[in-house]
Write a structure and sequence with these properties.
The structure is a single chain. By secondary structure, this protein is of the alpha/beta class. It folds into 2 domains: 178 residues, Quinone Oxidoreductase, Chain A, domain 1 (Alpha-Beta Complex); 134 residues, Rossmann fold, CATH 3.40.50. It is built from 11 helices and 17 strands. The strands form 4 sheets. Strands 3, 4, 5, 8, 9, 16 and 17 form a 7-stranded mixed β-sheet that branches. A 6-stranded parallel β-sheet has the order 12-11-10-13-14-15, with helices on both faces. The two termini are 27 Å apart. Bound molecules: nicotinamide-adenine-dinucleotide (NAD) and zinc ion (2 copies). Keywords: Metal-binding, NAD, Oxidoreductase, Zinc. This is Alcohol dehydrogenase.
Length: 344
Amino acid sequence: MTGTNIRAAIVREFGAPLEVDQYELPEPGPHQALVRVLTSGVCHTDLHAAEGDWPVKPSPPFVPGHEGVGIVEAVGPDVTDVQVGDLIGNAWLWSACGECEYCESGWETLCEAQQNGGYSVDGSFGDHMIVDTRYAARVPEGADPLEVAPVLCAGVTVYKALKRTEARPGQWVAITGIGGLGHIAVQYAVAMGLRVVAVDVSDEKLELAKKHGAEVTVNAREVDPIAAVHEATGGTHAVVVTAVHPAAFGQAIGFTRRGGTIVFVGLPPGDFPAPIFDIVLKGLTIRGSIVGTRRDLAEALDFYARGLIHPTVTARPLEDINAVFDEMRAGKIDGRVVVDFREN
Ligand code: NAD
Ligand code: ZN
Ligand code: ZN
């Protein structure tokens, strides 16, 4: 049997513009489905992938995209958990082994044999994609395909990161970086009863944070952000860092009060200096967090289904993908850009 010809945005070479062209997908294998893509969010991770920013790189040619929402068109052998016509999505955690110490202990996001959507496996920047039905997102009935797409990565990532801060209702959390991830983080935090201080380097992003419920905003380019956060909150109980500049990581450590927890989710290449004395004397916890499990994703989608979060989205055609990446590099996107395949 031959595969399916699709129209996709393809990375042929790191750092070069993506090519919108024909691309061939294989037939869906065991536990896989062929999905007609309706929409796909554009995550900054897709830009890191196309630039080859990280130590473990994908192999061109490949199709990025891991916030794809679509309709099951065909299923491979042994698929019993979804049917043709179901609304489902892909994810960064495209699949995992299911039997290692991480998979067996609720940490499938750390599985060393995982596959990643739009990275090690072709993703959703095409009019069709393949998913592993055991790991694909179940998109709630009645969801707006444009609004729900960013929940599949940005939403679940910040939802999980907020849980990992262990902050309780009424406590302060700083969200630093109010982009695709951060503007949704503000909303989950508010829904969880946390008090939010938003930090970014752009006033437009901070306006968006206010609209979504941040009580305090700090422009780190205009004022000393550590002093400003302490003045407004007395030091936060927690921080979630989604910013795409390494400088934000060192600053975040300064935002918390004693005993605070700082969760890193942004992934700019590079390092930052960390103050040993402060970390020890203030008893800080610093941890990384990577997307979320299938259960986290179902919970994150449930917040959306109950109307507790509303991603700010702008629809664009696939042909605009290189312009969208330019806007993302320049920090010019409000909320999330979502590619809309339904317009063609
Ligand atoms: P984005 O481009 O939409 O947003 C990035 C934001 O960071 C922008 O608002 C920008 O103004 C802000 N920023 C830049 N420099 C800053 C600074 N010095 N201080 C404060 N804010 C600053 O990107 P996104 O899609 O939200 O992704 C953010 C990062 O998170 C990327 O590195 C991405 O790869 C990573 N990511 C991680 C996970 C995970 O599971 N850990 C999941 C998804 C994305
Ligand atoms: Zn992502
Ligand atoms: Zn595993």
